[in-house]
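Rotation project, supervised by the postdoc (A.L.). Task for the rotation student: set up a whole-complex structure prediction and record inputs and outputs verbatim in this book. Inputs entered:
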Amino acid sequence: MTKDREKGDPYDGPRDFGYITPAGRRLSEYEAVTLYIQPDPKGFDRPGDLTTRPDGRGTWNEDSTAMRCEDWFAFRDPAEMWQRPYISRQTDQERSIDRLIRHWAESGALGQLDGEWARSGLGEIYLPCAFMEHGIFRAMAYAQREALSDTLATALTLNATDKVRHAQDIVLYHIELVAAGVPIREDNGKASWIGDPIFQGCRRVIERLMATDDWAEIAVATNLVIEPLVAGSIYDEILAHGASRIGDMATTVILAEAGRDRARNLAWTRRLVELALDDKADSDHNRSVITGWLSSWRTDATAALTGLGPAAQRVGLDPDHLNDQVHASWSRLVEPFDLKLAEVGA
Amino acid sequence: MTDRFAVAHDRVKDLDWEPDYFRAEPRYPTRYKLPKKTKDPFKHLIRQYCAMENEKDDRQYGSLTDLCTRTGAISNAEPRWAEVQKIVLPTLTLAEYGAAKCQGLLIDAVENAELRQGYLAQMMDEVRHYNQQMWLIRYWSKHWSDPEGFAYALKHKGQNLFYRPGRSFFETFMNSDPISSSVSLQVMGETAYTNPLFVAMTEIAAANGDNATPTVFLSIQSDESRHMANGYATLAAVLSEPDNIPLLQQDLNDMFWRGSRFLDPFMGAVYDYFQKVRLKSYAEYWDEWIWEDWGGAYMARLEPFGITPPVTLEYSKNLARTGQHAAAILAYAAWPLNYWRFDPPTEADFEWFEEKYPGYYDLYGNFWDLYKALADPSEGATPLGVMASVQRLPAFCRVCQMPGILPELFAPTERIVQKGDQWEAFCSAECEALFDREPHRYLAYTPFFTRYDGWDLADIILDWGLVRADGKTLLGQPVLESDRPWTVDDIRRCGVEIQDPVRLYVEELRGQK
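Outputs recorded:
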């Protein structure tokens, strides 16, 4: 029933989304299925807000972040993650965790896990981290509502989902350990999160994050400061070191899978910072804002890291060395931004 | 394994704690009181959720990329049906996007771990849906014979007069008290209207040779039942606190009004005017899904709590029989401002209309005669121009954005009223009442007629970029195929000047004095 169009027929038009300027040579599937779903009052959706919020604020507000950007829709997630590849990747990750844990549980290997490591490492350090992941999820879910483009909101939504998944993986692993007869606490670790001195710096920085209103600050604080300095120390250094010392392969696998997600989330947040720093009109302003954020959040993250010292000692790590090592890595991480952090004491 | 997940599911709801170091002010304040613990509408972990959605994705995208492409799933579609997808699909994407935002509101505002589990999964579902729908739009643009309205749908929809009421309604999903947003989205939008939308539209699409849309829509609808459960669980939580009852009744009334005001004329026009192979009428679908299922069975479950169906439910039953004709006639008359091709009803269609809506031809036959007579550009006139020359055009409602032609074309309830220093148009007393309660929420934009008062229709078309690659042939056309498609020069020759009906009304009023 379709009429075949001849060349020159005025109805023979463009066959792709030419309104999108692709970041690469060709329009990607990610760009096609994500961009301009959020109305852009500066672009195609000129009428503005037709029904505002009860307090009169608009649907999206430039002052929802201290960052400024000529075009937030220019943001692209370097992983080009949209729902389908994301779900496919998460399914693979979860399947591999599930398969391995099941295998070790059924083979009896899980039940032979070192009791002291299970009690003091997994029970006292890893299990309370589910609360940290959950807190970041809460902050990210809010940030996705306020983000100023669909590409940013999608990245934040997927980031939020990562955090729920990580929290649930910790909970599920704990249930497996208990079921396997491993000598580990049976409660959910909330008492440690609330009361153990080693976690109070972590809890403070997470509660600050949950009370932060600036959506871009939430992304920068989480993925450029809290994750590399605090979560990175706990997962990649303290727990990874402790697990490898006693041959705990199961924990190592779960940590590695979560680490892949953290790397992806770090990458998109770096791109957000680069977008802000490359902004023609507001580069200097953004430089100042981001420098302030990194400085301020680094102070709180450093306090959290100091609090984790006894946990590092438990697995045989020198807290001062860990502190130096993590901060050196962090300095290399933010070095490409050329932010002169030293001048603000960071 | 199931037990393990069940235990874990209980555990993951205990990950909240009372902050000590920093305490956030409510970012989305709600007037409702909510219990901290309720029934859980979503008993899945992310691990289970991902596996389930991954399988559905593989099936849907696999089917589209393989089977549908090989069998020409949409190139065989009825052109009348295919063309209207150019406005249906991009409008839906914003509904999904607003729904994702709504979950952000709810996760932040509702301190209830059970409900939050469901909101999280829905947030991911909504990303899924807007990605699916964009994928489908791109699929149409690659395979449809007149692709530009699909390829540039997201650009053109922004100004479109029939998208605006949708956008206005979808903004209630993300811009209201979080519980009011839940009522608008989950209780009203999803529970009442997604069945007629995703199920009924699937039937019509398949009958009209479009096998791609059902592939996507049925996959979407499989998620919607979980969203309805979210809505019901939220309602149950709200109903457990007696002080909430009057608030909920007010929100049900308001949100049903806002939703029905847009959805019934819009969906009714799509179903009744763009089917070629005809199945049921919109009124029949409405009676089955809205009147009986939602207004009857669903609302009956709320009666013991003192909640009654929305006060305008019965009004909407009538609107589902009249509003679509008014909306369709205005959409057809305004074809130059749209970006798809229209196909006017044939004699066979009139027979069907007469059977489904007795007395149809007597009411609307003259318009269709005029429409067909003016389809050729050599006639030098457009239906919109003729309408504007006879009487002032209907104004767009300041609140819902619908034109002042409802509930019936020849018996509208449009009202133009002075509010402070300004004169404002409303489609009804109900929308005026909404405005009076919160006028500031509806004054952040410039109405269409204020913006384009005194413009030639041709210049609006150019301002909106509604011409094809040759710079003159219009994207919208009054018929599907023509040896001589309309150009912007043809429109200019028609000499249609757009005049603000609110201004004309006030001038007329002052002249009478």
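Student's summary: The two ends of chain B are 81 Å apart (CA to CA).
Supervisor addendum: Chain B touches chain A through 95 residues (CB under 8 Å).
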